[in-house]
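S.,

Sequence below, as promised.
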Amino acid sequence: MKKAILTLLSLAFYLCSYSQTNGNYNYSIVARAFSIIQLPKLLNQTDQPYLNTYFNGAMIKFNDNQISYRLSANYLNKSTSFNNNCANCELADGKTTDYSVKIGFEKSFNYSGIQPYFAMDIGFRSTVFKGTINNTNPQRVTVSPSSIEGSKNGFVASPVLGIKLNPVPMLSIFAESNLEFFYSYERQETVALDASNYRTLNKYYKTEFLLNPVSVGIQIHLGTKD
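The prediction came back faster than expected:
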């Protein structure tokens, strides 16, 4: 029993000895190893499934005790296929490119080995879909496929809740979740792939909320303070 109590005290002392991990270093380099994200709605997409992504983001933090200033960037380029307008209306198939750049701050709630934190980021996001769109309604008169390009560019604001585990002084493992407010200018251009090459262009201003349930990664702390 005494040995068990001694072991627990030693573990507590070990965690406390690294209780100011972030505060002891000038900056941190962060890599997002895995994320579950929700992309902005493309065209008149019928649903917005969650996507699993790997190593699609990085961040640098400038540490000041319990507050860190964050500069982050995310990038995704993937093939995409989705129902447009309704489940049996049209099928869009192509490639989606999505990137964002954000700046913000992060506030840790304590200095322990396990640190919950809150953050707030703002910045710019761009999502572009390029591909073709085909009619899938058998009752509709045959319609030629069209090439289509849809883009959304605009402002993002994102509150974040997270937790960090500091197993060793220079390394932290984190998990966080965020809700993203996206106000964008959307542009949709369609060109019929037939003899007419009929072109349509639509423009909108849109607001949407995107939920990113989890993002997991590592932080390397550098630049020891005197």
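The chain has a mean pLDDT of 86.

Coffee later?
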